[in-house]
Amino acid sequence: MESELNWILLGLPIAFGLGWLASRLDLRQWRMENRQNPRAYFRGLNFLLNEQQDQAIDAFIEAVQNDPDTSELHFALGNLFRRRGEYERAVRVHEHLLARGDISLADRQRAQHALALDYLKAGLIDRAEDALLKLEGTPFEQEARLARLANYERSRDWSQAAQIARQLDQAGQGSFATRLAHYLCEQASAQPEQALALLEQARETAPHAARPRLELARLQLQAGQALSACAILEDALEAAPSALPLLAAPLAEAAMAADRVPVVLPRLQALYRQSPGIDLLQAIVTLHQASAPGAASARDWYIQHLEQEPSLVAASRWIAGERLEHEQFHPLVQRALDHAVGPLLRYRCAACGFEAKQHFWQCPGCQTWDSYPARRVEEL
User: Fold this and answer.
1) Which residue in 379, 298, 306, 301 sits closest to 344, CA to CA?
2) Cα separation of 202 and 198, whole Å?
3) Which of the listed residues 139, 170, 190 is the one where a domain comes to its end?
4) What is the mean predicted confidence (pLDDT) over 338-358?
């Protein structure tokens, strides 16, 4: 009995010592891991700042392995994968976050938004649409709607785009009236039987937009309603004065068809004196020639323009109607001038610089609306 008691008394200090030693080892391991985790994280951050993405990814993967419960590391890693174009890996990271049951609601919404961005960047439009719809009612709602709007525009789903634009307008994200008018005009071009009603609706939606009035006037002109077309375009001169270069040629055509040249010509001349321009100049010359065929005064407008602006376009058009001393060389000279003038008659996107022979309401290069000025390259 006494021996058993001695063993117990002897074992108690040993057990206490072993327990203390084990606790110290656990504490030391815990401290070591805590030192390692931030070190890996900050190493990855340093690589990222130095634009060494491969090394940054390796460091973040190490940090995630050491501490798999840290959501911030997952977000950093997923964003890196997306920036590098490794969309499948980015999707896996964000899907893993969404599958976890221990993350907060804010992190879950953030992961859903990140997943939608992964799908968008990967070009998986259907999956992106589903992911973006799940962001309704979250802090990412407006961003998701803007992304959906861009998707509908790319797929030319103008009715859905109009619905989203109205929601954004009502939410105070800016005025989408002009954008809605563009959508209605696009629908009108795709649905000729409803074109008139759609263009009237577009004009009411954006009273100061030039496109609905221009397309409505062209529709009326095609239907033989020249007087109505002329009235629409004359009204557009007041409603959208910045679009005067685009309005001038169709207005001249409508005025000649409606026998309103004596009324329209003085008005265009007055506007030209306020703001000279190539397209307006050509419309004036066209109306002069229509009212008095063969009149030399029509072409004198080119000279008046050259007195104000050193325009190669105006010079080329004036020479085209002149008889030169060596007339046999005139076609060669004119061809050279036309070749030189071609780039000057283009329109240039103010957002991305994309140039085109015709005016676009939406840039084919960057998809920006109303980024093409009404004036040609020579006049910019």
Assistant:
1) 379
2) 6
3) 139
4) 86
Any domain includes 376: yes
The tens digit of pLDDT for each residue in 80-121 reads 778 878 888 788 878 877 777 777 888 888 888 988 888 888
For helices 177-190 and 195-205, angle between their N-to-C axes, nearest 10 degrees: 170
Res. 195: pLDDT tops 80 = yes
Task: State pLDDT tens for residues 155-166.
Answer: 888 989 989 888
What does the pLDDT read at residue 55? 61
On whether residue 179 sits in a domain, the answer given is: no
Q: What is the pTM of this model?
A: 0.73
Contact call for residues 277 and 244 (beta carbons, < 8 A): yes
Side-chain-facing half-sphere of 133: CA atoms under 13 Å? 6
The contacts of residue 258 (CB under 8 Å, 6+ apart) are 226, 227, 229, 230
Q: Which residues in 191-218 are b (16+ Cβ under 10 Å) and which e?
A: eeeebeebbebbbebbeebbbbbbbbbb
What CA–CA distance (Å, rounded) separates 213 from 72?
A: 52
CA pair distance 337, 317, nearest whole angstrom: 9
Geometric angle at alpha carbon 35, from 30 and 37, rounded to 5°: 95
Say how many C-beta atoms besides its own lie within 10 A of residue 226's C-beta.
Answer: 19
C-beta atoms surrounding 265 within 10 Å:
19
Hey, what are 152's tokens? Answer: 């509908």
Say how far residue 292 (Cα) sits from the centre of its chain.
47
CA-based nearest residue to 349, from 336, 338, 362: 362
Distance (Å, whole) CA 252 – CA 264: 8
Which residues make beta-bridge pairs with 356?
347
| Beta strands per DSSP E along 25-153 | none
Structural domains counted in the chain: 2
Q: Which of 195, 149, 203, 193 is nearest to 171 (CA)?
A: 149
Residue 15 lies in a domain: no
Task: Indicate the burial class of 28 (C-beta count within 10 angstroms; 0-12, 13-18, 19 or more).
Answer: exposed
Of the candidates 89, 104, 139, which is a domain's last residue?
139
CATH code of residue 89: 1.25.40.10
Question: If pLDDT is split at 50, 70 and 90, which confidence band does 319 have?
Answer: confident
The answer as to whether 212 is a domain residue is: no
Average pLDDT value for the chain? 79
Which structural domain range is residue 363 located in?
Answer: 346-380
